Structure formats: C-alpha cells, structure tokens
Amino acid sequence: MIRIALPTHLRRLANVEREVEIQVEDPVTLRAVLDALEDRYPMLRGTIRDQVTKERRPYIRFFACGEDLSLESPEAPLPAEVTAGTEPLRIVGAMAGG
User: Fold this and answer.
1) What is the dihedral of CA 18, 65, 67, 45, to 10 degrees?
2) Which of 6, 10, 63, 82 is the most buried (most CB within 10 A)?
3) What sign for the dihedral angle of Cα 12, 87, 61, 34?
4) 8-57 confidence digits (pLDDT tens)
C-alpha cells in the first residue's frame, strides 16, 4: 500500500484523514500513484494536475524521503520507502507571496 499525505484543502475536498492508502501496481511511479488516487477520489481530478495534460498544477509539490520530487519525470520510480509503505508521498500546496 502506498501512503499519501494530503494538504488540508484536498483532505476536505475528498473528506479523508491526513493520509490515505492506495494500492498501486508495479512499476510504482508518480503518474501511477496519481492515477490511482484520482480513480479512488474522483473529486480530486484537476486539483493536483491538469486533467488533459496531466502536468502538475502550479503551487503543488511532491515530497518523499526528504526530497522534492516535483520536477522529476512522472515515469521515474518512487523511492523504495514509499513503495514499501514506510514513508508517505507528501503532496504539498506551496505558498507564494511577497
């Protein structure tokens, strides 16, 4: 099971707790995890990534094992700790301002 930590606004939208668990078939990539997350929680479609292009939305970041995965290829395998379920994939709503 893959653990996903969601920011408050997405938790409220999906009506879930801080973390959700989803099953993802190998290979476990960011794209596969987001596909499975959107399949299970269709109300999240279009909030994390564009529905047509599947590109990450501005101000949404992905972290795992202390590393920023936001600019990695969506087809790159996720860290072993994430695939083993010992570490969550964190989806973070970044803030901007001046």
Assistant:
1) -40
2) 6
3) negative
4) 999 999 999 999 999 999 999 999 999 999 999 999 999 999 999 999 99
Whether this prediction's pTM lies above 0.90 is answered by yes
Beta strand 89-93 with 19-22 is unpaired
Identify whether 19 is part of a domain. Answer: yes
Structural domain includes residue 87:
yes
Half-sphere exposure of 61 (CA within 13 A, CB side): 11
DSSP annotation of 58 reads T
Residue 42, domain CATH: 3.10.20.30
Q: Which of 2, 3, 10, 15 is nearest to 93 (CA)?
A: 10
Q: Are 72 and 30 in contact (CB under 8 A)?
A: yes
For residue 89, what are the domain limits? 2-93
